[in-house]
Amino acid sequence: MCYFKKLIITTLFLTLSAFAHNHGFDNVKIKTIEVKDGIYMLMGRGGNIGLSVGDDGVFMIDDQFAPLSQKIKTAITKITDKRVKFLINTHWHFDHVGGNENFSKDGVVIVSHNNVRDRMSKDGFIKAFNRKTKAASKAALPIVTFSDTISFHLNGEQIEVLHMPNSHTDGDSVIFFKSSNVIHTGDIFFNGFYPFIDKSSKGSIDGVIKSVEYILSKADDETQIIPGHGKLANKDDLKVYRDTLIILKERMKKLIDDGKTLEEIIAMKPNADIDKKWGGGFLNPENFLRILYDVVKND
To answer: Is there a contact between 113 and 145 (Cβ–Cβ < 8 Å)?
Structure first.
């Protein structure tokens, strides 16, 4: 491995490590956005949290990082005096499940797809960042799992949770608040910047595109969409995301088919026109190309 590539991986690893530990969390503020009556989105650091709030209690989607749990709980108490009853993990990544143990200790029932619990139960490895992950504690593991779909009926809301294989990972769930016309996509949707597709967790760009197509088929012009990362969105935003992913995939596939190496592709800057809008997020243009190359080449 060349020095430059090692430097890129080291930089990414350090970025992830900063996210995964307490450093910097003291200054994080939890922002509460009312999406629809009784439906909220919380933004802090890590994946966007979704809430259904009402007389039956709180249904929660994802919980970011452990050091933020108290701040998140405080934000919820400003909305309602009801307790969190259910917490669903959209997938296994630590910026979405890091607070599981803290909520589990409050008696919250944690729910996920089977593959999420499986991946959390054992040590893992994220190839894109050359990062080993440790198995979660018993208290952090989901205690209710499902294969395809599961439904909840709370707060006058029909909540449908659907497994979307294989997209960002092999355990992604999308949550449909059918009564309120709100969708939480988890990390299938990064709004406004390059997405991370975790090949080590059997993620697939074709799967992401297929899942986005399905979500679009269930949305209308009034649907509010909570992405895994980024600002609150609508159907038009999700269409732009889908169209951009298709372009990015086709460009990379052509370059690979033409026999270009990864380093040659990076030097070409094939997505310079898109980099200006999408390259300022978690993954800069070069890091995204490295991940996309591996995903498309092995999809």
So the answer is: yes
State which residues of the chain have pLDDT below 70.
Answer: 1-23
pLDDT digits (tens, 9 = 90+) for 111-146: 999 999 999 999 999 988 888 999 999 999 999 999
Half-sphere exposure of 10 (CA within 13 A, CB side): 7
Q: How many residues does the chain have?
A: 299
Secondary structure class of 297 (helix, strand, coil): helix
CA 11 from centre of chain: 21
Residue 260 to residue 276: CA distance in whole angstroms: 23
Q: Are 257 and 296 in contact (CB under 8 A)?
A: no
Q: Could you give the domains of the chain? A: 3-298 (3.60.15.10)
Question: Is the full-model pTM beyond 0.90?
Answer: yes
Enter the tokens of residue 46: 């890590």
